[in-house]
Structure formats: structure tokens, C-alpha cells
Amino acid sequence: QNRRQLAQQLGQKVAVNGFNIHYERVGTGQHTVLLLPGGSTRTDFGAQLETMNREAFTLIAWDPPGYGYSRPPERDWNDYYRRDAKVAAQFMKALGVAKYSLLGWSDGGSTAFIIAAANPLSVHKLVVFGTNAYVSAEDNRLLLDIQDVNKWHPKARQAYEDVYGPDVFRRLWADIIAAQLRYHDICRSDLAAIKQPTLILHGDRDPLVDPMHPEYLLKHIPSARIHRFPTGGHNIHMTFCDEFNEIVEQFLLQ
């Protein structure tokens, strides 16, 4: 089954602040975790939805406005990190979830920082990976290295084409590149306000994240710790799925 069929079978919709948000929910555990993708649920978090402990956790993965199946409308690139953070908090209220932890990857990690800082009574714990609070010149160089999707591994490209279709994905990716290159400071001022226990996971061979970022986050988030995957890349939750899930679950249940 492809990602579109799975999304149709497992997905639900809820209206939030003018957006028709698509999400998937699995598990019956008392500890609710909001999964914040860099793109969409089906391209980013299928492995966690399928393999994390469903008795201990209730996992809710969303497609941010304009991504995945939370379309239409198409993505608005104006201050989108803070918009996503605001809509995500409203989304959890709409689902009736008062307390939850956050698991954020890539752009979803940046969004998670803003949510945690702004909602100290709602967010229990924070796990982020492959993410940053600002954009460096090195980040831009790394991003430009992957702007041509024809050079991607076919399997990686197919994951996005299954969700968007080839033409829409190529337009979206060009828009993502252009939007990212305009950013400098994403949420550095929010980090000091994050009082929740925070776990930073990092692949030391991440081809998209300046190596300075995990150290910067560790220094500026008061209750942060770090776990490194020495041979890991950007998608450690996929390539090291079992180890990744175990580390995340242990941290969240402590």
C-alpha cells in the first residue's frame, strides 16, 4: 500500500483556525505525544506510528498547514514556523488534549521549540532531532547541495511523490528552498523559556544540519541533554528506528 492509501485509511481531519488539518492517531497510552514532521506525517513518521509502544503512548502526527494532506490551501511561507506552532497548540486543544509531549524532526523541531516555550503548562517533555534555532551560512550551503531532486535517491524522492505527485512536489520543494534561504533567526529567543526536560538527538553525519546546532541547543535550553548517533544522518529515526524509539520512549517515561 502506498502512502496515499494509508493516509486515507488512517487519517482524520479537524478544522483549526481556518485550516483543515489532517492527522493520524495510534495507541491508547496515557502519555500523548504530538509528532511534528519536517514535512508531512506519511513521509516522515510512518516508522514511529507503526513501531512505537502503543500501550504506553498515544501518538498523534499531523500535517502542518499546506503540507501533506492538510491541503488546500497551499503552504503560506510568511513566518511559517510561528504560524505552525500556534496552529499546533490550537490543534491539540481542538482534540481535547490538555497535556502532551513533543517529538519534532527538522523544521518540526524548530516548531517544537516555539510551542514548548509558549505553552509551559501543556507541554510535558520535548524531543528534537535534525533541527536548529537559527540558519547559518553552512546550513544554506548544505541545503543548496540537495535542491536538485533529480539527484536524490529514487526511493527518497518517491516518498514525497507518493503524497504530492511529481509536479506538485517539485514546485513545493523549490518553494521550501527559497523560504529557507530567507531565514536567519528562527527561534533563538525562545530557547531560554523552554523549562521542560529536553532531549536532543543528533546524527553526527547529518548532511543538512551545521554541526554547531546541537551544541548551541544544549547550551541555551536550560534542561537539555543530548544523545548522539555517531554514524547517523538526518533521518536517524528511520535508519536506527529501534534504537531511536527505545531512547525516546525511555526519556518520555522517566
UniProtKB/TrEMBL annotation:
This is AB hydrolase-1 domain-containing protein. Residues 33-246 form the AB hydrolase-1 domain. It holds the Pfam family Abhydrolase_6. It comes from the Eukaryota. SUPFAM superfamilies: alpha/beta-Hydrolases. Transmembrane segments: none annotated. GO terms for molecular function: serine hydrolase activity.
